[in-house]
Give the backbone structure.
Amino acid sequence: MPNFSLMDSVFEAAARQFPTPFHLYHEAGIRARARALNAAFSWAPDFKEYFAVKALPNPRILKIFQEEGCGLDCSSECELLLAEMLGMQGDDVMFSANAMPPEEFAHARAMNAIINLDDISDIDMLAENGGIPEVVCVRYNPGGEFLMGSSIMGSPGDSKYGWTREQLPLGLNKLKEMGAKKFGLHAFLASNTAGNSYYPTLAGILFDLGAALEKECGMPLDFINLSGGVGIPYHSDQEEADIARIGEGVRQEYIRVFGDPAQARVKIKTELGRFMTGPEGWLVTRAVHEKDIHKRYLGVDACASNLMRPAMYGAYHHIHVCGKRDAAADTLYDVTGCLCENNDKFAVDRWLPRVEKGDLMVIHDTGAHGSAMGYQYNGRLRSAEILYTQEGDFRLIRRAETPEDYFATLV
Ligand SMILES: *Cc1c(COP(=O)(O)O)cnc(C)c1O
């Protein structure tokens, strides 16, 4: 079930203060999620969540995670700069390399960030750009299909990320010779998973593998990084993941492989993005146009520049009409933006209450990979981001782009 915790009066009040479209984020909700995650893993030695910056790269949001004791997972120079803006460095920053420009390694090393190496060849690149740190993380790709029970959860065999099983001991031995003292192990095998068994299954695989590699290389395993992938209920018939149960499932696997967590030393890290902020963001837009041809099209003032997931992946986002939550959904619409691209549709064949021009529409679950994926195709500009604070006011945390921004890079 998408998140219905905010009343329509909140969206309406925000829309009186700021022109649509905008993304609205709920501070209290984000904090509650960070706290629930930290509580679910409080049994683990030195547990730390590194919020995946790419999901919602706004410093005001990142500061909330910092205040809740989380670190940041960065994958680019600008994401490292965002961490630096908040004074974060060292163990508070994870740098996830993949086909990375060499100088970004040097930047991450200068911040003393934890480096997660995506490929065995990255060892030499890291040695030449900042040097090999005492603790290095490596990313595993088992290949083939990732199964849970009999269902295919992901296809690591087609994924560009990570090292093969054979490469791991070779690379770890090399890292050890080059001065590494401990290693971390990471894998991201399935995205936006439903239910509560993804993390425990992945943890079981990584705990066993980490223990085996420790023996094969004689280098201690410092941490397991479970990465992202815990999903959210975009559809009304889906259930919210139970993070406490997920934490307990991981604990059972931990005990099986490492014994009592109170006596053991292997740390747990996560890099959740979607689960942390996805349901705590909404794209607020207004109905501006309606046409009735071979289908009925409802035009809104947002477009794929503000939220690309439906156009890019055919992703489902729940939509409700402010003030009409209880009205019968008796009209079939395609809800569209104004891009000259026929995939610029927030919904296809969606039953909604009858919408009037000017009605406020709320697109749910835009708090992760929403505004962050914005772009300027067709000369359409990215919208504002607004934080609904714990104090109950609305704070502009990113202004909408203007034509000056669009022209700013011309030479
Ligand atoms: C995208 C990403 C994440 C976050 O994934 P979610 O599905 O948003 O939880 C975590 N780690 C890495 C390396 C990523 O690329």
Summary: The first helix runs from residue 8 to 17. The chain has a mean pLDDT of 97. The two ends are 48 Å apart (CA to CA). The pocket of pyridoxal-5'-phosphate is lined by residues 52, 54-55, 73, 75, 96, 188, 191-192, 227-229, 271-275, 368 (CB under 6 Å).
